[in-house]
Amino acid sequence: MDDIFGRQQAILIADVQVNGKNADIFVRDDGTIGAIGEGVRKQHTGEADIIIDGNGAIALPGLVNTHTHAAMSLLRGYADDMILQDWLSQKIWPLEAHLTPPDVYWGTKLACLEMIRTGTTAFNDMYFMMEEAARAVGEAGIRAVLSYGFIDLFDAGKREAECRATENLVRHIRSLDNPRITAAAGPHAPYTVSPDGLKWCAEFAREEKIGIHIHLSETEKEVNDCIAQHGKRPAVLLDECGILTPRTVAAHCCWLDEAECTLLGKRGVSASHNPTSNMKLATNRAMPWHWLKDAGANVCLGTDGCASNNNLDMFEEAKTAAILQKFFWNNPTLLPAQEALAMATANGARGLGLATGRLLPGTPADIILVAVHEACNTPLHNAMSNIVYSCNGGAVETTICDGRVLMLNREVPGEKEILEGASAAAADLVRRAQSS
Amino acid sequence: MDDIFGRQQAILIADVQVNGKNADIFVRDDGTIGAIGEGVRKQHTGEADIIIDGNGAIALPGLVNTHTHAAMSLLRGYADDMILQDWLSQKIWPLEAHLTPPDVYWGTKLACLEMIRTGTTAFNDMYFMMEEAARAVGEAGIRAVLSYGFIDLFDAGKREAECRATENLVRHIRSLDNPRITAAAGPHAPYTVSPDGLKWCAEFAREEKIGIHIHLSETEKEVNDCIAQHGKRPAVLLDECGILTPRTVAAHCCWLDEAECTLLGKRGVSASHNPTSNMKLATNRAMPWHWLKDAGANVCLGTDGCASNNNLDMFEEAKTAAILQKFFWNNPTLLPAQEALAMATANGARGLGLATGRLLPGTPADIILVAVHEACNTPLHNAMSNIVYSCNGGAVETTICDGRVLMLNREVPGEKEILEGASAAAADLVRRAQSS
Predict the structure, then answer these.
(1) I want to staple B58 with a disulfide (CB 3.0 to 4.6 A). Which of A350, A432, B124, B370 is the partner?
(2) Contact A380 B423 (CB under 8 A)
(3) Do A332 and B380 touch (CB under 8 A)?
(4) For residue B382, what are the domain limits?
(5) pLDDT surpasses 60 at A2
């Protein structure tokens, strides 16, 4: 049975629900969706290397997590319920100071496992030692856009080093020649990167034809500091530095004003909503989803890292987004289920420049199967509602990325080794930090 | 294997984590916890009818859901993303008008199944046709406090009928003589029950020595209406009618002011926080948890019904509570993980007058086992943090209530029949409503 995992092969998913109708899905051995619909089974059974019984499942596009720090899964539960600055300076940074490349490898392995289990097939990552993240993603079989977190702290010497690190990562990822793994520039945030650093990142991304991944206006303080330091709001500053482009993903966006939302829309930026992290860290304002949407920005969804969430379940994140928007902006009709799911699928794929996110012939086969015969999907008045409001990632039973089976009937090969390796790495990391 | 389910028997849970330590738990065949600790295995192996391998699991008290309308699981996903009044008048009430006793039976069966799967062993329910709810709870094997939703709409004739319905339910539940099922008075809310109705419920509950279950200050409008109608805030009105007692569970409590919180604390009331429902229906204010806690009220947790949540997963609810409190009251240290878990366990049990909610020798054995070797519990820096922030109910692998095994290694006997019965009842209900 193990030989069906991770292989290029033609797959027939028979008798599955697609957009409320019974259908079959044929996946070619080049990893693309060949056909979807009634009767596809009859035409393609002979060509299929394996047949997956989709009876009792809903097929969805693989989910897309547009903002995370995957390796931080090693820090899951290490510190919570603290003031942001104390949390960072007393807990997170001292631990991160001891991180080694194998830690990033194991943390990213653990994160990929959790994503596969909960139906995410692509993610947008920012961290460091990203060569090790790339290795983990390559083994896991999912997609990732990887960026080195560029932080110059307004120091010219540091800036040079960050430019080199960014160039090195992009070169390394190109050398891997893995179509599932691409690089992005990762200027951390307007409050940690100088305008010169931002401009360099923008220009470099343009030349290299890669995306940009940045944090934007997570807290009120950083907005106020930006105005005090630069005399303008963060999105305006970023725009002047060339950072706002159709290939840019801006995470958080809690404190954007209406004019900044208009600007993001005009530039075609993707705004990644991270509601759980924002609530846990008490940002005190929810992303103005309706302003961004009305302005034509591409609003998508991300979990943020495991240190501030503390999981990578995009089903839970979609629910939290849908209920937080209603609650904070005081309107129970805001962000209905279907739009929350679009944020987690089609919009996310668009944000990362992927052709996935919809189940269409000719597109890469990133497909997940969600179990119907469970309490969370009973009754099935409305599948979109159940998926967003009732299910969590545990309802995913099968995950396919790029036409390769990564989880089948909740079995992921090698799971035990990943859990053990990540546990050991996390324990050792804490030991090193505490004995230093 | 099936003969281990639902039976009175002596159980040894060997090698399980309890409060961060390795221990064994011995459950007597009278349904109580006999012993907990290291070495318990050696003393009690001979007495055990069955041995459950707890290696790789964390033992917790069964969770307590202090506010729900279980049978509304049949309406899961039927209507969402609407204005409250439209949602009720166009969707929920027309469907409820066609509810029959078998619908309440199947809806409650489905709810109990979901609760068993997600680690809840006791719940506080308010609905109608509650004799059927009692039948479903009896079969499921969990605990419930059942109340008839008393709604007189300020009409003396209706009030008499509601008094009789309340008396009948209490009499019926007494006649069942099932220690797991008790009755409560269920005056729906200050805006649906006259002061005379409230007084009758308070007096009846006192005489019968039963609890009271009521909705309190969910929306700003009902508070303003109460002041306009009665010249006082809702909690003050309830207190004058005798409703605020140590056996009262008041659900929602979003719009209490500080003086009302002090009053609830003084009376020893249990306040049930229902954060997901409040966010989804855009109540625009989160329960003032810190005021209630400081006043000495017993703050516990509930999911509300499936029509406004849309699941009964108390793990997800604890996380939503912890992050909503931080977000709304703008303080990332509010409601830390340990207190969120206490709300879902010990505080909930106290609210329902149960001796469960803690793992102590001599108390009833309501025990759940949470899987450790999963991504959500890796690494295990802090079990409390993982349980609240990272896991959902899918991490529960075994559920024991009153010393009876209801789920073992994720198997619940009869699950398929319950899902099919509830699906059929829900479809038929919609058909009847649409053809009328």
Answers:
(1) B370
(2) yes
(3) no
(4) 2-61+366-415
(5) no
